[in-house]
Amino acid sequence: MSILSFKGGVHPHNDGKALSKTRPIEDFEPKGEIVIPLSQHIGTPAAPVVKPGDKVLVNQKIGESSGFISANVHSSVSGTVKKIEARRMASGNKVMCVVIDNDNRYNECPITDFRKASEMSDKEKLELIKEAGIVGMGGAGFPSHVKLSPQNKEDIEYIIVNGAECEPYLTSDYRRMIENPEYLLEGLRIVLSMFKKAKGIIAIEDNKLDAVIKLKKLLHHDKDIEVRTLFTKYPQGGERALIYAVTGRKINSSMLPADVKCIVHNVDTIFAIRNAVINKKPLVTRIVTVTGDAVKRPQNYKVPIGTNIRELVEAAGGFKKAPEKIISGGPMMGTAIYNLDAPIVKGTSSILAFTKDEVRDSEPSSCINCGRCVSVCPGRVVPARLSVMAEHGDKEAFIKNNGMECCECGCCSYICPAKRNLTQAIKSMRQDILAERKGGK
């Protein structure tokens, strides 16, 4: 069996996946109010198409895409719109939201489109994906219909399904592959039908060999799709690292996967595409892993978008002990949160709770020039130097030394024996430079 990888990366000493890996996906139905943000994606926020007092159904559109890089938003429950106002997200930012009084009936919009996927043109499939409000569910939130509309569509050679799930503790994609592998293949075949020259690759780390075996068995000798096994290493699921591992092709910060004839989709995104094209249903739920050593009953849940995080944590039994740190997303690239009263959004892969805050308890010291940050950097830059340039606000030197090639994976901070906040400093500088470029300064 060929084990594929990339240069750099780290092996976290405890990946924490055992806590929830064997926990089948459970449906979760929230009881309280639902807060659905109009911006759950990269690009322009959706514009509300409902008003307070309106009755809504599950799958009903409540936010209209308002730009090329934008996505529709739909209701995940039935009930009454209470208000449209700014609410605090897990990230700490305030976003305009549609607040719905959940009637707990979950009445759905009637389906009126009964076409089969085989009866649709590529344009019709793409329109269904756009209408469904599907975005990248690995965390980036890029609108999927835009990703599936590259300028060089006829040149695309690979549709890569990112099944690496390299972040510690996360097991939602793994459970998807184990429980419904046939749906994953159906979704991938729908995407492949839109790119006539493309082949499908499902890339999975070798700590999920049961998923590899199950999918290979279903594929038999399929000539258009293959499963490729990746070496278990973080950030194997990063787009640049993944493309290099499975194709040997390199991209940098100024390139898109389509520039090397590839398109990459997360496992849950492929499921959402299948649901949109086959079942004619929009993206209103996602799989969330609730885990960590502070959680009583770690579990994977199928969760309506807009569910209150606190309510979901309570469904997992609450906390065994008051956690010192709670994270939305993975421990390497996720966002630390201070308030559980925030909604689950399309990009929420997990809620993690830990009894100890290891980062807080670590006291940074001076760089010892050991070079470990360089050895693990998948972007092949020098994080120790870049962090100093960032701390001094030297943007010119930062750019000259390829600071924009950082993928903010956190490997350098993880491996640093001096416990320096390398990623944080570099990320802040990158954000400042990108903001200036966007503003045309």
List keywords for this structure.
441 residues; alpha/beta; Ubiquitin-like (UB roll); Rossmann fold; 3 domains; 20% strand
Summarize the structure.
This protein is α/β, with parallel strands linked by helices. It contains 13 helices and 18 strands. β14 and β15 form a beta hairpin.
Please characterize this protein's 3D structure.
The chain has 441 residues and is an alpha/beta fold. The protein has 3 domains: 30-111 and 282-354, Ubiquitin-like (UB roll), CATH 3.10.20; 113-278, NADH-ubiquinone oxidoreductase 51kDa subunit (Rossmann fold), CATH 3.40.50; 372-438, no CATH class. Helix content is 26%, strand content 20%. It has 13 helices and 18 strands. The protein has helices at 122-131, 144-147, 172-179, 181-192, 209-219, 239-247, 267-278, 309-315, 372-376, 383-391, 395-400, 411-415, 422-438, and strands at residues 3-4, 25-27, 34-37, 47-48, 55-56, 61-64, 73-74, 79-88, 94-102, 158-163, 199-205, 225-230, 262-266, 285-291, 299-304, 325-328, 335-337, 350-354. The strands form 4 sheets. A 6-stranded mixed beta sheet has the order 2-15-14-18-16-17. β6 and β7 (73-74) form a beta hairpin. The model has no long low-confidence stretch (mean pLDDT 95).
Describe the SSE topology:
Layout: E1 3-4, E2 25-27, E3 34-37, E4 47-48, E5 55-56, E6 61-64, E7 73-74, E8 79-88, E9 94-102, H1 122-131, H2 144-147, E10 158-163, H3 172-179, H4 181-192, E11 199-205, H5 209-219, E12 225-230, H6 239-247, E13 262-266, H7 267-278, E14 285-291, E15 299-304, H8 309-315, E16 325-328, E17 335-337, E18 350-354, H9 372-376, H10 383-391, H11 395-400, H12 411-415, H13 422-438
Parallel strand pairs: 1-12, 2-15, 10-11, 10-13, 11-12, 14-18
Antiparallel strand pairs: 3-9, 4-6, 5-8, 6-7, 8-9, 14-15, 16-17, 16-18
